[in-house]
């Protein structure tokens, strides 16, 4: 059985792949024609229903003519931003207007 957060990973990666493919105005059938990937497999992966290997992602990125890191940057953009915000909060604390008033007094 796959833990829920692992399923979320597959969904995020799949959504990123689909988004990039659509930006390049490619249909799943186009990807199938340019590779050995079956249309049904591509569809399952884009919907987060099938696990995918790093090698598969690299090959898919090559077909889309993108750097493989683009997939992960898109898939986990919100997570990266949340982590950065959390680090900033830990370093600087949270802002409160009362602290400004204290400094100006």
Annotation keywords:
mainly alpha, 7 helices, elongated
What does the secondary structure layout of this molecule look like, with pairings?
Blueprint: H1 4-23, H2 28-34, H3 39-46, H4 54-64, H5 68-75, H6 77-92, H7 97-104
Helix pairs in contact: 1-5
Give an account of the 3D structure.
- The protein has 105 residues and is mostly helical.
- The chain has helices at residues 4-23, 28-34, 39-46, 54-64, 68-75, 77-92, 97-104.
- 10% of the residues are buried.
Report helical residue fraction.
Answer: over 70%
**Separation of termini?**
60 Å
In angstroms, what is the radius of gyration? 20 Å
What is the overall number of helices?
7
- Note the overall shape: elongated
How much of the sequence is in beta strands? under 5%
Structural class comes to mainly alpha
Uncertain regions spanning at least 5 consecutive residues: none
H/E order of the elements?
A: HHHHHHH
Let me know the largest β-sheet.
Answer: none
Compute the number of strand runs.
0
Mean pLDDT: 83
